[in-house]
Amino acid sequence: MDIDLHVHSKYSTRPSQWFLRKLGCPESFTEPALIYAKAKRRGMSLVTITDHNTIDGALEIGHLPGTFVSEEITSYFPEDGCKVHVLALNITEAQHRDFQKVRENVYDLAAYLRGEGIAHILAHPLFGVNDKLTVEHFEKMLLLFKHFELNGSRDSYQNDTLRLILASLDRRVMERLADKHNIEPDFEEPWIKHLTGGSDDHGSLKIASMFTSVPGASSLDEYLSGLREGRCLPAGKAATPQALAYNLYSIAYQFYGSKLHLGDHANKNIFFRFVDRFLSGREQAEPGLVFRVSTFLGGMRRKRAKPDMDSFGTFVLHQAESLIAGDERLTALAKGNCDDERPAEDEWFHFVDRASNLVLSHFASHLLDHMTGANIFNIFQGLGSAGALGTILAPYFVAYSLFTRERLFCQRTADSFGVERAADKCEKLRVAHFSDTFHEINGVALTLRMQLDHARKLGKHLTVITCGPDDSPRKGVRNFKPVGVYTLPEYPEQKLYFPPFMQMLDFVARNEFDCIHSATPGPIGLAALAISKILKIPFHGTYHTAIPQYTKTLTEDETMEDLMWGYVVWYYNQMDKVFVPSAFTGQELAARGVDKKKIVLFPRGVDTERFAPTRSNGYFKGLDIENTVKLLYVGRLSKEKNLDLLADAFKEILASHPGTSLVLTGEGPYSDQLKTRLADVPHMFTGCLEGETLATVFASCDLFVFPSATDTFGNVVLEAQASGLPVIVTDQGGPRENMSDGLTGMVVPSGDKQALVQAVCRLIDDPALRHSMGVAARTAMEARSFENAFAKTWELYR
């Protein structure tokens, strides 16, 4: 015989949780008769209702066959008020009244239930009902109760942890706990526990998702006898955050639907039809003529109407209606015509995800348009819309956050009993590295790829999470399809991809990451921040790029620079740790307002096997510049890199040193202007190079010139030195800290053309100095291998 031992009706008086208190509604509205009908349809042999501290729901169906009266009793540990829930089965009205006299003290309640011979079960033992639950409380529960519930509204992590802990108990453990808490178990073999299953359903959506079976039982008495003797078997499926969120949406809809009569619109509007179909908990009638006519007229209206971007509610409704009407499956679901239905919570997640992606993409583009135009008022208006969208998605945020909090408690409890899940027996640290630029060719992306390679070699759990058009598979990378893209007006080559936030959130939750790292503060970095807050995961980040300075250079607008500084300071202050590639960068962030206690200088390395002097193989053989002294620049060809200064300086150098040439490796928005400026001097644009070819170009040149004053680090400066080249850098930014002035190269004042000319000319005129600096540069880089740097960085995550 099968029965769902834990389901609630409209009579449940359980205090609302945080989210439901915010909504101002109770938790359950389901009619007892509907519960009975659904439980029977789902194959339950017997039906009972366990409302909180009341038996009204159970009594209402008491005349129906195969029912009995039960209750979920709210009780407390008297020493600190920690709340627990106990299921009492097949009780009388007199026993219910007695419960109210003893339930304030869980010790008295447990003694009463045993004394009366009432079959009882401790519900969701690892779930803190009022946030007071500790490991010590759980230990006391083990001494007070024999039967423990696997709960259908909790996730598999919590239920599996409970299974493992109970299976680990023995006489020695229970004797230790009895001595510790001065509680003597009042039942035989207290180390042997029995498990039951119950759905803990509050909205008539997941009845019998978990239930309890007693094989061979053919009557209620036989069922209860088998349960007491431990012949009970929990069955069914645990919940997911998606299932809990779906339940919260349903509870809110049922409450406000009854107040506002939303169901009346279900036959007139495809959106309300869809919502009512999923959230009402009612049986749906076939759509009639009114619905078909209204749907047709609504489609005509949506085609003519332009969504109002300034009215959030109207815009969301328009997008949701359009999404359902334009999707055959969603339309079929609204009409109840899908035969191959997935679980309802999956379908609802799919709809909310797609609808929120549409809205988020539109409003993000709208916001960025106003930002680039410095329309401050409209920027705040857009932020308000984003906040409203967050309110709509709140059930998911609450569900994921709650499950994460419970997992943390489960981990602590399991550790106290020396229990370890199979998944935790390997390397425990799992890092999710979010990046907006993984598919681009730059230092950040290159470093991430190298970190992935080394993580695989060392058996570390590193996953790069990104979003972009490149969907080619790569081990260790989860690339999400963008829901929108924004092209920066001043920098058309640079695109911002809007990620599918709900999908990212679900991916991180399912993979149980221990740390989130943000490589960039763009849309994907913002998603990483939000996910870390929802899932309560430590949030680290690296300040790679001098975004405010770049913004000023590209827009020539100090207001935009100040705006970006405000954003950067806010963003990095949300982190637990801010990794900076140079002391200069850390000092700059601290001076702008980033908490200096969070700033950590982290090690950066270089691939000394790939970048080496031995890579020189005559790359320039047969070209006009083959026998010249070759000055090399590697990096993005963009205005903020001070390439105008380099071009002017090179022309002046060439006047006194005609046997010199300039090699530029990279691509960018400034390449056409540079080609025009250098048209009449010996130069070469190699385009963007990678791997062995790039290493060959480095080793085949004579010295490296990097005029940028905005780089926070400068990987290419390390790669040049590893290749045996002396380097010339400015006194601003991170590259200055990655070389030794006078030993591995020279430092010149930022923006000083004459100083740059003099430094280059000195190295051209003195081949011996050039050689000795190149040797010293190579030696210095051999101590900064990427392997060593990665190992040190991984320890910082711990």
Task: Please tell me about this protein's structure.
- The protein is 47% helix and 14% strand.
- The longest helix is centred in the middle third of the chain and has 29 residues.
- Strands 11-10-9-14-15-16-17 form a seven-stranded parallel beta sheet, sandwiched between helices. The protein has a six-stranded parallel beta sheet with strand order 20-19-18-21-22-23, sandwiched between helices. A three-stranded antiparallel beta sheet has the order 1-7-8, with no helix packed on it.
- It starts with a strand and ends with a helix.
- The chain is of the alpha/beta class and 798 residues long.
Question: What structural class do you assign from the helix and strand content?
Answer: alpha/beta
Q: What are the segments in which pLDDT stays under 50 over at least 5 consecutive residues? A: 14-27, 289-293, 379-383
Radius of gyration: 33 Å
Largest sheet, described in full? 7 strands, parallel
Q: With helices defined by DSSP (H or I, 4 residues minimum), what is the helix count?
A: 30
How would the global form be characterised? elongated
Distance between the termini: 50 Å
The oligomeric state of the chains shown is single chain
The percent range for helix content is: 40-55%
Biggest β-sheet: strands ordered side by side in the sheet: 11-10-9-14-15-16-17
Beta strand %: 5-15%
Mean pLDDT: 85
β-strand number = 23
